[in-house]
Specification:
The protein is an alpha+beta fold. The chain is 35% helix and 31% strand. Residues 31-129, 144-238 form the NIPSNAP domain.
Length: 240
């Protein structure tokens, strides 16, 4: 469904009120997943700047994790942010636009490394709390994006939940979200493993579980396509 923002939303305050609403996330938060395509030869410079100066950004709002793509995409960074509401996000973005140190020390230098930027906003599915438990050493992450048939989210969700308890016996997700802004009818899963080899092994073992296998089989009836990225956390990522 498409809509047009009318002229009454032209002021910043009106725009903030338009986006002010109770989130459907299980914890009442909204999440922003940002993906940056970095010019390949400038990726080391971009990461050095980010690891050194990103405290200027996290002073304004909470970052859940920051990764580089290793499999499924190259020369990308992916970062996940948490906000109390869309109004909160708007106020953070405004504060950042007025933060001279952030703009001069980081943005002005890192901007030339970026080829493209995209973002989606997400809400946690009510039956999947955010799991931010860390381990002693950095892990390998799987980010799974599923595009669903329009209007079929509830049917897809019902099928997945039929086998969810079985899937959790094999590993625990970081989070499970659905899109609010960005490509419609999408869900995102984030998982963490000791290595990419373990990720494959765990997924293969889970697929031998009849209850989970049947749930996935039925859920695919409502799925157009899915895509998996392998991610590695950078030094400053809270999730490792």
């Amino acid at each position: 469904m498409f809509f047009r923002i009318s002229s009454r939303f032209t002021s910043t305050n009106s725009f903030s009120r338009f986006f002010s609403r109770s989130s459907s996330s299980s914890n009442g938060k909204i999440y922003e997943l940002r993906t940056y395509d970095i010019i390949p030869e400038k990726l080391p410079t971009f990461l050095q700047l980010t690891n050194s100066l990103f405290h200027l950004r996290t002073a304004h709002s909470r970052m859940v994790g920051y990764w580089t793509s290793e499999l499924g995409a190259l020369s990308q960074t992916v970062h996940l942010w948490e906000y109390d509401s869309y109004t909160h996000r708007t106020s953070v973005r405004k504060a950042l636009s007025q933060d001279k140190e952030w703009l001069e020390a980081y943005v002005s230098k890192s901007f030339h490394c970026i080829k493209n930027q995209s973002n989606v906003t997400l809400s946690l599915l009510p039956w999947t709390p955010l799991n931010e438990e860390n381990t002693d050493k950095p892990r390998a992450f799987q980010l799974i994006q599923c595009s669903l048939l329009p209007g079929r989210f509830k049917q897809w969700e019902h099928q997945i939940r039929q086998g969810w308890a079985s899937r959790l016996r094999h590993s625990q997700p970081i989070g499970f979200w659905k899109t609010e802004f960005g490509p419609a009818n999408n869900v995102y899963e984030l998982w963490a493993y000791e290595s990419f080899d373990e990720a494959i092994a765990v997924n293969e073992k889970a697929c031998l579980d009849e209850e989970w296998r049947e749930a996935v089989c039925q859920a695919t009836l409502y799925t157009k396509e899915s895509y998996v990225k392998g991610l590695l956390p950078i030094d400053i990522s809270p999730l490792k």
